[in-house]
Amino acid sequence: MTQILIIILTFVLTNNCILSQFLGICPFLGVSKKLDSAVGMGAAVTFVMLLATAVTWPIQKFILEPYNIGYLQTVVYILVIASLVQLVEMTLKKYMPPLYKSLGVFLPLITTNCAVLGVAISVIDNGYNYGESIVCAIGTGIGFLLAMVLFAGLREKLEDCKGIPECFKGIPITLVTAAILSMSFMAFSGVVDGIFG
């Protein structure tokens, strides 16, 4: 139980895929203008991360490694992720049209979201078993969602702010805000070690 809690806290706070590893920056900057779009994108990416990890881990352990074709890992993982994104896209289009429209072009971009591929590869590299891999995917997805929601809230506040100098309006203030948010997550780096030693 302690190991599961350590994995979740690590990937939500101290090793956040967006704010620490800089994976998934495209949707982070592109979809975070409105809170509802950010929540939808974060939930979709979390779902795809979970499914991708659940499918790719057995493929790695039972097909790629036993047959010594590990060099196909990236290609196989991308094909699996692309298939899963198509499934999510068709489901959202049929059952949640407003969310599908608000995500727009960024939904198919989950296929190329390096955060999804990164978590699928990192669970293998870290030597996690199947259960730990699923927990890692959930923790990483929650961290992605947390970063998206926090950043969307900050961007909505920035829209109402009147004191921003003209040269900082738009993309510059967005990048400065992202940098400050990323630095604030660095404060969590000693939390997991401090709690669990």
Provide the fold topology.
Blueprint: H1 2-14, H2 25-30, H3 35-64, H4 73-95, H5 97-103, H6 114-125, H7 130-160, H8 171-185, H9 191-196
Concise synopsis of the structure shown:
This protein is mainly alpha-helical. The chain is built from nine helices and no strands.
Description of the structure:
It is a single chain. By secondary structure, the protein is an all-alpha fold. 73% of the residues lie in helices and 0% in strands. The chain has 9 helices and no strands. Helix 1 runs parallel beside helix 7.
What keyword list fits this structure?
mainly alpha
Coarse structural class: mainly alpha
Shape by Cα distribution: globular
Could you tell me how far the N terminus lies from the C terminus, measured between alpha carbons in angstroms? 15 Å
Give the total of beta strands.
Answer: 0
What Rg is obtained from the alpha carbons, in whole angstroms? Answer: 18 Å
Query: Largest beta sheet, briefly?
Result: none
Number of helices, counting only DSSP H or I runs of 4 residues or more: 9
Encode the helix/strand succession as letters: HHHHHHHHH
